[in-house]
C-alpha cells in the first residue's frame, strides 16, 4: 500500500474515533459523578401546578418546582460542601437492568425489585453499605425514617446467610392484586385469583405480561383449596408455610401452573405490559392484574373520568414486592466519596417530605414511615382523611407500618380503594408472601413453562379441528 | 490544482496511484459501519447459537428448537401469518399498482403519494389508530386475534408490496401488450401470458419485503392483543430472560430461511430472464 492510501485510511479511522470520543465530555475534577439507574417514571420530576400542592397539617406546603435530582445536587452541596452530578437513566424491566449490568454498563446506584436485588447479591455484584449508614445521625433520613415493618422484612430475608438490609435500602413497596370495576365485578368475585379463569368475564380481563406475576397468580389458583382450608389458615406457622407453598418451583407445580396459565391465555383479553391501565379507564376490560402502585394511579385516572374502580388483594395470597436501592461494586470501585454520595442520595429521597413528593407524583407507596417526623401520617390524613360532614367513615388501622398505634378516619369506600391499595390493612399483610429469586435451574424451568404457554399449541389446535 | 485532481479521481479515471480519493477509499466509512454493526453482531449471533451456557460448542439449542412441538408450532404459526399477510398484500397491491402504472387518468402523482404517505408515519402510531377503529367495529378485539393480526400486518406492509410492483409494471413496455392484443390474445391471456410473467421480479421483491419481516413483527401482535408468540416474540422472550443461546439459535434459523428464500427467488428471476431472452430472440 502506498503512503497516500495509508494516509487516507488513517484520516478515516481517526475521524471515526473522534466522533465516538466526542460523547465523552470533560468532567470537572472536584465534581463527584453519580450514575443512578431507576425505573421509568419512578421519581418526582418537579414542575407541579399550584392545585397539585400537598398541604400538611403542620403548615408544610409541598409544591416542588425542580425535580428531585436537581434538589439533591443542591442539597448535597449545601450539606457536604461538595459538588455532585447525577447522571440519571431509567430501565423498563428488572431483566433489562440485569442485562445492562452484566453487559458492562456501569451504574453506581440502581433500584431493582426484591428478587433481582437478591440475585445481584447472590452473584456478588452489590457493595454493602458503610458501617454508619444505619446510624441515627443528622441527614440519615433512611435510617431514621424507614418503616419498622419494612426494615424487619429486609432484616429477615437472607442471602447466603446475610440479611438483605446490609446491601439494600427500600424505596417503594406494595402488593399484587386485581383492579376491578365494581359495577361489573363483585367484591367477592375479585377476592380470588381464579377470577382470571372466569367464563363470565370471557375476554374482559387482562393479566401482566410478566413470567413472575403470572406464575404467582397461577400458583395461587393451583393451591387455592389447600391455602383456604381452615386447618391451613389456623396453623401456628401459617405465614412461613404460605411462603414455602408459593415459592415452590418443582416440576409438578410448574406443570400444573402451565396448564392453568394456558387456560388463562385463552380466557383473558390480553397479556399487557402497560395498556391495562388505559383499557380499564376506557372500559375495554372490567378487571386486570395490577401492582398496587399502578392500581392507585388507575383508580385516580378513572375517577377523573367519573368512573369508580376498586382494588383487591386476593384472599389466597398476595405478593409483597419492594424496589430498593443498592450500590454496584464494580462501578463504585472503592471510591469512598462516590459511595458517600450514593448513600446520601438514598437518605435524601427518604426525607419524609421527599418521600411524599415521590408518592404523590408516581402513586406508589414509600417505605418511609417518618420516624420522629409525623409528616407521612399527616400526608395520609390529607390524602384520605374523611371530611367533617361525612358520616359513613371507618377508623382504618395502619399501626403495623408505623410501629406504633395509628388510625386514620377515612370514608368507608376507601377500604377497597386507594387507601387499601397504598396502605393495605394488616389482614392483607398476613397473607403477603415475598417471592424469592429463582436459581438458574428453576429459572430455566419456569421460562420454558412460560414459552410453552405462549407458543402456538399444534396438538390443541388439531384436537379442536 | 488539488480540486482538479480530486474530481479526476472521483470519476475513477484509473489513475489510482494519485494521492487523493479513489472510489475504493470512499467506501471505507460504510465498510467500517458494516463491520461494526452487521458482521461482528452476526458472528456473535452464530457463536451464541452454537454454544451452551458455559461456552462449550453444542448443537443442543438447535435440537431443542426442532425437538419441541411448541416451538415448531410457533414456527408454523409465524409462517401461516406471514403467508396470509403476503397473499392479501399481493391481492390488494397488484391491481392498485397496475392501475397506478398503466391507468390513464390525471393526478397520478397524487394517487401514488396516497400510497406512500402512510409510510411517513410510524407504524405503531398507525396501528394504535386502527385498533380504536377496530374496537368500535368489533366490540372486543380479543375475540378475533388472528383476523386482527393479519389485518394490521397487511395495513403495515402494503406500501412495501405496492412500490416494487409499481416499478416493475412501469418498466413493462406497452408495445408488448399492444402486440399481444394485435396477435389476438384475450384480455385474460394478455395478463396471464405477458403482464404477469414480466412483473415477476417485482412480485418477488415485494414478497421478500413482506413475508420475512411479517414473521418477526411481534409488536403488531402485542398491540392487537394476540397472546400467541411468533418467531420475533420467542426471540425476545429468550433474550429478556438472559438466555442468549436459545434466542440466538432461533435468529440463526431465521437467517437461514432468509438465505434460502433469497437464493430461491434469485433463481426464479434468473429463469424468467433466460426465458424472456429466448422469447425475444
What does this structure look like?
The complex is a heterodimer of chains A (465) and B (281). Chain A has 465 residues and is an alpha/beta fold. Chain A has 22 helices and 20 strands. In chain A, strands 1, 4, 5, 6, 9, 16 and 17 form a 7-stranded mixed beta sheet that branches. Chain A has a 5-stranded mixed beta sheet with strand order 12-11-13-10-14, with helices on both faces. A two-stranded antiparallel ribbon of chain A has the order 2-3. Chain A is globular and about 70 Å long. Chain A starts with a helix and ends with a helix. Chain B is an all-alpha fold and 281 residues long. Chain B has helices at residues 2-10, 23-26, 28-49, 60-67, 69-102, 108-116, 123-138, 145-171, 174-182, 187-198, 200-216, 218-223, 231-240, 244-280. In chain B, helix 8 runs antiparallel to helix 11. The radius of gyration of chain B is 24 Å and the shape is globular. The N and C termini of chain B lie far apart (51 Å). The model of chain B has no long low-confidence stretch (mean pLDDT 85). The chains are: A alpha/beta (465), B mainly alpha (281). Chain A binds chain B through residues 2, 4-5, 7-9, 12-13, 16, 93, 95-96, 98-99, 102, 203-204, 209, 211, 265, 268-273, 284, 440, 443-444, 447, 450-452, 454-459, 461, and chain B through 17-22, 25, 28-29, 32, 53, 69-74, 76-77, 135, 140-143, 222, 225, 227-229, 233-234, 237-243.
